[in-house]
Amino acid sequence: MEEKRPKPLPPSLRGRRRYIAFHVISEEQILLDDLNNTIWHTILNFLGEHGASKTDIWFAKDTYDEKKQMGLIRCSHTSVEQIRTSLALIERIGDTRVVVKVLGISGTINAAKMKFFGETKLTEFTS
Amino acid sequence: MKFYDLHIKTNLSDGENSLEEMVRFAEDLGYSGVAICDNYESKEKLAELAKIIKELKTEIEVYPGVLIQAETVNQLKDMISKVREKAVVVVVAGGNYEINRAACDDPRVDILAHPESGRIDSGLDEACLEAAAKNNVAIQINFREILYSFRKQRSYSLNHIEKNIRLAEHFRVPLIVCSGAQSKWDMRAPRELVSVANVLGLEISKAFLGVTTIPQQIIEDNMKSLEGKKITEGVEIVE
């Protein structure tokens, strides 16, 4: 049996969030796990455990495309600059030297995908 | 909006990548202009740099600059007088207090880079900042100093940079944000540099000035005086 989960909060009580779309520039392919570990490592080093908890960070793993090397990170709306700085401080992943470039910020996953990854809504074709 | 990075190095001195690679990468990151600031060795090297820039075909603006690493004040002054007529951007590598002070006192200097580098204090005091404000010497926030320091050292350098930002704001000294890249992998997009400055206590609008208006102003002023249009402060030839 599936474990029961708490009901989703009403929008007014949820934390305000932003989605940061990023692009990893590198000469070799960067895998999801390596990237996830490095991002967490950098953020914990730079902001500390307490600071990292305040940013409400979550790496949206299913949005990361290993071929295009683009993905999304969720954070609270007050800590966007801190996450941006942490991403700028990533200089290598494993043995590969990288630059993480932020493509932009968005309020929802769908809007971020359409704005920065060039995805289109299916409904746009019908109308 | 035009973005500038006025402190990048190439393999003409101790950098890793060639000038062309650096410029292409800067273009990809969204810069509209860069200044190549390699360590000053001789006048011939500076002429060589100017020649390479002339031959380069690129969309963005590339300017010849120079990074002065002096050990004594006399050496610094000597080097500045040699390069001022040739380079668009003159950057002095700080760290030594006497050098920091002399750089702030000299109106021919454009940028004082990393005054806190390798020190146990922030490297600037009231006298330096007053002089810098008077002579219009910009204090640089160097991203590479933060990127390649770790743990205790990084927290010290962050603290010193924060202190310098606060003091520079108080004395109205222009602040400029640069990557100080020695390899193309050290470069970051301009908006990221703004974020770094913002996290260190600079207001976001002022941090934007540090990658847009202030570098642009430095370049415009120096281009004018190199072309002979600007005679002295406030006196210009208008066509």
Topology, please?
The complex is a heterodimer of chains A (127) and B (239).
Chain A: E1 17-26, H1 32-54, E2 58-65, E3 70-76, H2 80-88, E4 92-93, E5 96-106, H3 109-116, H4 123-126
Antiparallel strand pairs in A: 1-3, 1-5, 2-3, 4-5
Chain B: E1 4-8, H1 19-29, E2 33-39, H2 43-55, E3 61-68, H3 73-83, E4 89-93, H4 97-105, E5 111-113, H5 126-135, E6 138-142, H6 143-147, H7 151-171, E7 175-178, H8 190-199, H9 204-209, H10 213-226, E8 230-232, E9 235-236
What report would you give on this structure?
The complex is a heterodimer of chains A (127) and B (239). Chain A is an alpha+beta fold and 127 residues long. Chain A has one domain (17-122): Ribonuclease P, Pop5 subunit (Alpha-Beta Plaits, 2-Layer Sandwich). In chain A, 35% of the residues lie in helices and 30% in strands. In chain A, helix 1 (32-54) packs across helix 2 (80-88). The N and C termini of chain A lie far apart (42 Å). The model of chain B has no long low-confidence stretch (mean pLDDT 92). In chain B, helix 4 (97-105) packs parallel to helix 5 (126-135). In chain B, helix 1 links the parallel strand 1 (4-8) and strand 2. The longest helix of chain B is centred in the last third of the chain and has 21 residues, at 151-171. Helix content of chain B is 46%, strand content 18%. With 239 residues, chain B is an alpha/beta fold. The A-B interface holds A 25, 45, 81-82, 84-85, 87-89, 91-92, 97-99, 101-102 and B 28-29, 143, 146-148, 151, 183, 185-189, 191-193, 195-196, 198-199, 204.
